[in-house]
Amino acid sequence: MPPIVQAIKLSKVYRTKKVEYVALRGVDLEIQGGEFVALVGPSGSGKTTLLDMIGLLDSPTAGKVIINGIDATSLSERKKAELRNKHIGFVFQSYNLITYLSVLENVELPLAVAGIPFWKRRKRAEEVLAEIPGMLELKDKKPNELSGGQQQRVAIARALVNDPELLIADEPTANLDTKTGEAVVKLLKSLSVEKKVTILMATHDPDMIKNCDRVIHIRDGMIERVVEQ
Fold this sequence. Notes:
The protein has helices at residues 47-54, 77-87, 103-113, 118-130, 148-160, 178-194, 206-210; strands at 5-15, 20-31, 36-40, 62-67, 70-71, 88-92, 166-170, 198-202, 214-219, 222-228. By secondary structure, it is of the alpha/beta class. It has a six-stranded mixed beta sheet with strand order 6-7-8-3-9-10. It has a four-stranded antiparallel beta sheet with strand order 2-1-4-5, covered by helices on one side. The longest helix is centred in the C-terminal third of the chain and has 17 residues, at 178-194. 41% of the residues are buried.
């Protein structure tokens, strides 16, 4: 089978009137379906930029991003959004939950954006919360009534509600204590193993790294080495 993600000669240059900053320098990368891949490197190495490119949140200066055999870089912004909503889920270190919505409403939000009828999206959101231990009982709570770990689990549920093939996570345990972080690691690992969700994750967390299939080291916008585990 072809890889679920391909980055081909991917480059990104940010320019202002006075400054030019090269964030990515001709990155080549392939990720197979069901892989759990860690992206590691120092601050400013290009990790988040690469995640944004692969997640179709930003466009490369040069090169291609191919998702499930589709050259996303040649698509209109509307088509990119459709591809992103259909195939990709996102988990951010800051959770990005909407404070005035309940847990259930936050989880079903991507389905609402996609135009899924109310009863269908509510049923699907409850199904996803039920798959994450201890979360369905919190469905009527607001984010500010939850711990950091619970908020991150809600964010993961929201990322999974559209049944994505690819989950992109940017430092998902960065704001969590050790014990809570370990629970999030366990949850992501189970998604990879049991549900065959492909996960690409930027992290500094050694517990995260040791649970991955591959570790991609990036520095100065280039892949330095790849370690199979």
